Amino acid sequence: MTKNTPMMEQYLKIKAEHQDAFLFFRLGDFYEMFFNDAIEAARELEITLTKRDSGKQEPIPMCGVPYHSAANYIKVLVDKGYKVAICEQVEDPKSAKGVVKREVIQLITPGTVMEKNMLNEKENNFIASLSHFNHSYVIVYSDLSTGENRLVLFENGWDAVLHELYHQPIKEIVISSDLPEGLQNQLRERLHVTLSYQDEVTFNAEYRSLCENLHDDRLLTSLSRLLNYIQYTQKRSLEHMQPAEIIHLSSYLSLDMYSKRNLELTETMMKKEKYGSLLWVLDKTVTAMGARMLKKWLERPLLNKQLIEERLEIVDRFYQQFMDRDDLRETLKSVYDLERLAGRIAFGNVNARDLLQLKESLSKVPRLKTILKQFSQPVVQNLADQFNYPEAVVDLLETSLVGDPPISIKEGGIIKDGYHQQLDTYRDASRNGKQWIAELERKEKEETNIKSLKVGYNRVFGYYIEVTKANLHLLPEGKYERKQTLTNAERYITPELKEKEQLILEAEEKSVELEYQLFIDIREKMKEHIPALQQLAEAVSYVDVLQGFATVSEANNYVRPTFVENQLSIEKSRHPVIEQVMKEGTFVPNDIVLNEDKSILLITGPNMSGKSTFMRQLALTVIMGQIGCFVPCASADLLLFDQIFTRIGAADDLVAGQSTFMVEMLEANHAISNATDRSLILLDEIGRGTSTYDGMALAQAIIEYIHNHIHAKTLFSTHYHELTDLEQTLPRLKNIHVRAEEYEGNVVFLHQIKEGAADESYGIHVAKLAELPPSLIERASSILQELEGTAKSQLSVQQSETAATEESGQLSFFIEEGKQKPKQHTTEESDIVRDLKDIDLFDMTPMDAMNELYRLQKKLRK
Ligand code: ADP
Ligand code: MG
User: Fold this and answer.
1) Residue 273 and which of 172, 211, 697, 809 are 20 to 30 A apart at CA?
2) Which residue owns the Cα nearest ligand 1 atom 10?
3) Is 545 exposed, middle or buried (0-12, 13-18, 19+ CB in 10 A)?
4) What is the rounded average pLDDT of the residues 519-530?
5) Ligand 1 atom closest to Cα of 589?
6) What's the mean per-residue pLDDT of the chain?
7) What are the DNA mismatch repair proteins mutS family domain coordinates in residue numbering (predicted)?
């Protein structure tokens, strides 16, 4: 076997250290990939796979992407959950002896992207770390683009960890390699995130300022795991990282993962879109920072009444003083994403245009302050005090940057005249030189009398004097030195011209270099203002979300809720999302009351009448209230709920498909084992995933359990009419139903909630609405009549399922398929089955097979 080339040796060595990433190996103007990386990248990026002759028997698979368009390819890979290691030449190839030195300068991973084109501006991009200790777990979230760090400690088990991680915008989770395999798989399968490993958890003193508030070793270890990983991948300053905030789960309304999904808070279940979600209705923010904050609030509504009231109070003010609010809104629109600008300043990837945006945004702050002061309440006026900004930044940017700089920071044209003396000198030199040249052209024209004589410039020959062939006779012999001959003209130089050229070029080169240096200095100076910018960003986001609440509350007629202790009572409650997609004024509002005495509402009513809608609108109203927004109804007395649990029965569970009865039971179990008397439970048609008796029995047992042991406020919808009898035995349960009326044999949905149980289920009416064939509808009606007779008697004598099957063929309708007895075959049929079994297909021609099939079918059809 031949030896590898030295460059290949270098490649293999670096690749060995980055097994889990695509290694982008810089070769001239390309990033090249080799071996398996090349094969996979060619497939994922749809680029051509080539080969590199290595002198070995086997050429090496290879593919590459141009340096200047690499960002797009990297984005494709990272979006797919891969990592990319960027390996650059770290010494000048001209001065290198042997192979140019190369190093990985950054690892771009799904959780650590910073590039604008890879981030969704309205969403955080979290990388998390998960650490396990004996029975506890710690999650740390970090958004590298904004510098936020948050910690959550879980003392009781793994389940809560999954519920927490679910539905967060997490792209990557960093774990220790000894996290049990089973748990790792759950993370991969349920959360679809990239898993990365970091076992080094020693604390780096550089991060001291981030964790002064952490007094628990578990928290420190977990934060170190994440920061070490980020340091390892990014290999640069993390100056914008903010002190870690500890999230105490008990301060927030907790939503289990099923609620997060079923209530469609930030995206719809089916299409995973914002359109149709609560966020879609509520998001009237005008800055990217505000949009991100709103999303965070929706994922963690508050539990602290004082904080909620403070938000509501501000919303109220914004609502009332709508002229000032409009003013505020308009001014906020020109505030750029300060939070991410601060992040990119720390990372050293802002250009002059970004800094101008920063200046522009900061210059709006005094105006924002004035507007806030115009509101009549101290809570709002106090907000103005947080609108401080580093004036030095604005001054510096104002004096240093030109109004319309280029994107590149390496080609000059960024810095204003008068900012730096040496730069001015270079610029003067080059301007004077150019003037001298213009003067020269004028003078030579006059002297030679050649009107078309001109002084030009190109990169190869520098400055030259050009005379067309037709005019050559006018030129005194030997006046200039001939340099180049073209078809129509001759080009000349003079020693004087070359001397000036030297000065001009040198001045230009130096000034471009100096401008770059000056820009880097300005960027460095910005770093000390990062904390101030972050604080301002926080204040801007807060005001933006709350003006958004006021705006949406006014547009949709929401009212300010009151938080009370005993009885939840909402008048004319509406579903915030469904009312938006319906024609205005067509949504039917309903009242709801829940208290100690009546804490469980059992909802019956035909399919499609609005049971699920009613249940969800309660949960959404609760959530809106607890994030500090007004709510969709005529008036609301709300209770502060600590947790919301939802379970949507299998038949209604749209995403399901894979949802089995087992999952339904697991979810119900999650609710009843975690709920308290301050929780809200929504159980929508539970028990539908199994046979009637089973389902009904479980549904009843679950209601009784909640009633007797948990005392959580509960809405339970069901199509089992039999359950309405529970009102007699469970004092805190109350029947309500959604009214429907029969009109000329058709059902009309009124969507009105009434007391008492529904009288019929109207399923067949719905089938009729769906235009099933009339004969089928008739048949169903008569089966129903028979069943109603039989089923009632069956229930009362409590016969077992098997007994029921044997006695009445009709009841097999209720019984799971697998339990049905096999149908008896006739002798004729048995013969045919035997014949079929005996056929040796491989011994037959297709025609023979056809004939045999024909014979068998004919026998059956006799
Ligand atoms: P159920 O759960 O009883 O089968 P849904 O709650 O799914 O019924 O409601 C079915 C449809 O009826 C909804 O998609 C909506 O279009 C309409 N609907 C429900 N509640 C109302 C209401 N209060 N006012 C107007 N339309 C409603
Ligand atoms: Mg329903």
Assistant:
1) 172
2) 608
3) buried
4) 94
5) 23
6) 87
7) 679-695
Residue 746 marked in a binding site: no
- Taking each continuous run of H as one helix and of E as one strand, the counts in the chain are 29, 27
Range among 82-86, 775-779, 796-800 rated most confident = 82-86
Q: Where are the alpha helices (DSSP H) in 649-691?
A: 661-674
| Overall residue count recorded for the chain in this entry | 862
Residues 627, 701, single domain; the answer is yes
From residue 567, how far is each of 60, 120, 129, 629, 636 by CA, in Å?
Answer: 74, 42, 41, 20, 10
Q: Which domain holds residue 548?
A: 283-390+540-556
pLDDT at 103 (0 to 100)? 93
Index of the ligand 1 atom closest to the CA of residue 586: 25
3-class SS of residue 197: strand
Q: What is the number of the ligand closest to the CA of 617?
A: 1
Read off the pLDDT of each residue in 595-615 and give the average, rounded to a whole number: 92
Q: What is the Å distance from ligand 2's center to 763 Cα?
A: 13
The answer as to whether 411 is a domain residue is no
Which residue, 49, 84, 108, sits at the end of a domain? 108
**Largest CA-CA distance found in the chain, in angstroms, rounded:** 129
Tell me the CATH number at 306. Answer: 1.10.1420.10
Pocket of ligand 1 (CB under 6 A): 578, 587-588, 605, 607-613, 751
pLDDT of residue 693 exceeding 90, the answer is no
Ligand 1, pocket-test mutation among 579, 588, 608, 652, most atoms within 8 A of CB: 608
Identify whether 298 is part of a domain: yes
Q: Report the distance separating Cα 757 and Cα 771, nearest Å.
A: 28
Alpha helices, H only, 244-286 = 257-262, 278-282
Q: Is residue 781 part of a domain?
A: no
Instruction: Give yes or no: residues 84 and 126 share one domain.
Output: no
pLDDT of residue 820: 41
Helices (H), 236-351: 257-262, 278-282, 288-299, 305-320, 322-332, 338-347
pLDDT at 56: 62
Rg (CA), the chain: 37
pLDDT confidence band for 393 (50 / 70 / 90): very high
Mean pLDDT value across residues 182-209:
88
**Cα–Cα distance for residue pair 208/204, rounded to 1 Å:** 8
Q: Give the tokens for residue 536.
A: 């301002």
pTM of the model: 0.82
Same domain, 20 and 76: yes
In b/e form, how buried is each residue of 386-417, taking b as 16+ CB within 10 angstroms? ebebbeebbebbeebbeeebeeebeebebbee
Q: How high is the pLDDT of residue 142?
A: 93
Please check if 609 is assigned to a binding site: yes
| C-beta of residue 144 within 8 angstroms of C-beta of residue 172 | no
Q: 587 and 473, same structural domain?
A: no
Question: In sequence order, which ranges of 528-642 are alpha helices (DSSP H)?
Answer: 530-555, 578-581, 611-626
610 labeled part of a ligand binding site: yes
pLDDT(242) > 60: yes
Say yes or no: 19 and 64 in one domain: yes
Domain end, chosen from 556, 581, 605, is at 556
In a domain, 674, yes or no: yes
pLDDT of residue 690: 63
Are 317 and 238 in the same domain? no
Residue 660: is its pLDDT beyond 80? Answer: no
608 is in an annotated binding site: yes
Q: Are 126 and 109 in contact (CB under 8 A)?
A: no
**Quick one: which atom of ligand 1 is closest to the CA of 752?**
23
Q: Are residues 137 and 226 both part of a single domain? A: yes
Residue 692 has pLDDT above 90, yes or no: no
Would you say residue 793 has pLDDT above 60?
Answer: no
For residues 794 and 420, which has the higher predicted lDDT (pLDDT)? 420
- Find the helix or strand (DSSP H, E) in which 751 lies: strand 746-755
User: What is the rounded distance in angstroms from the CA atom of residue 796 to the CA atom of residue 385?
Assistant: 72
Residue written as token pair 């938080």: 563
Domain count, the chain: 6
